[in-house]
Amino acid sequence: MATRLVPPMPITSGWLSAIVVTVIGAVVRLWNLGQPHAVIFDETYYPKDALALLRFGVEQATVKDADKILLASDGNVHNLDIFTGAASFIVHPPLGKWIIGLGELTLGATPTGWRISVAIVGIIAVLLTARIARRLTRSNLVGFLAGLFVALDGMHIVMSRTGLLDIMLGFFVLLAFGCFLMDRDQVRGRLARLIEAEGLQATATTWGPRLGLRPWRWAGALALGLGCSVKWSGVWFAFGFIALSLVWDISARRAVGVLRPWRATLLRDLPSTVLVTAAIIIATYLLSWTGWFISDNGWDRNWAEGTGILAALSSLWHYHAEMWNFHVGLTTEHAYASNPWGWLLQVRPTSFYWNNVTDRTQGCPTDNCAAEVVALGNPVIWWAGVLAIVYQLWRWLGRRDWRSAAVLVGIAAGWLPWMLYLNRTIFTFYTVVFMPFVAIALAMSAAALLGPPTASDIRRRRGMIAVCVLVAAVVIVAWWMYPVWTGELLPYNEWQQRMWLPSWV
Prior knowledge:
Blueprint: H1 2-5, H2 15-30, H3 46-56, E1 60-62, H4 66-72, E2 83-87, H5 95-107, H6 111-137, H7 140-151, H8 154-160, H9 166-198, H10 215-228, H11 234-255, H12 261-287, H13 290-294, H14 309-328, E3 350-357, E4 369-375, H15 379-399, H16 402-415, H17 435-448, H18 457-486, E5 490-491, H19 492-497
């Protein structure tokens, strides 16, 4: 019973392989991080907002040509004078910009400074993916493959090397998933120990035993609150993971013989879970706005009359209504806007930076060179990942594999809600938030090629060859695409060779 409730972890810890893929991820994310020496794509917003938060606690409007002033400066955060003193209307919560600001505080308001914190978060995400995949599947191989896929995915690399918010949302989402997974193991471990001590009669009752305190679930709620404090789309993961955790409670009760597992979960766990997790998420989110609360210069800070907390909350609510109207009404045409239906296939990636050199300067060896940073996932990972998602869907529906369902919830929470906003201006790089779940799905599917432990030597040999071919393809394509993920100057024909689909241009 104990083994069925909590399958044992592998004999070896798997830390060596996790560290190896994390080092790989670190190298490709940190190498020449300050290049291109430019403000690329939406870096025109968040690094300056981060600098304002460091200086004033709230975002402020900037002077004309603020980007040029930043790039020409030495990056001293205390001397840069690019702000007008007027409040700035921003459309995302502050936490992600505070994290970017930590890098600026450490290395200066330079491209390296506003990217370093994002890169570190992306590197840690590689390690988290490897360890979470191992715990989910009890397989060192799956953990290694999942971590390697994240380490070498172009979407994750580009977003880890750019001063944007999405990689931080993805990090907190992944952290929350890991916490809920730990909660699942902890609860099942308690039930297993209870059965070992008192026998099955201790659990096989109408309602079953109470499941005890849930510190890992609370930690997951905290991580979800931090994610929502980066971008509002974290709320979809909150709904998905909390529902998933409750389903796991039902499954645990059923496994130990509880006669009414659904009713017991709905009456004993649902109310407290919703109340406690919602309280943690909301409190965490409000704390992220501390700078706005204690300032008199934030946007809409004094919208409501009065000076008490109720007036402040009313002003914040009005501010959020304006932010919401902006998001749902954002229909401005953009050359790189994309439809969510094509995201998994990376049909229309986002070009973050472009520089064309035609005079043999800047190190261009020919009469026509190009440098681009394009937020494009590793095609092998994403195209094979689509097949892996289909296979995991079959595993869930056909085999009732809870692990497949868990990974699919992570993908669905990051992808499907955008189907509600097909007319809104949205971009493929939003997929970076659920990219680790695609990596885990692909790793699980690749490991399945080896067959069960009882599979024949021929089956396992063929499966291992297939896995090695997949890994080799991922590595080769990552090497080939790395220049267009990092803005390296290439002869134009070499850049063209990397644009495999017309829609990538």
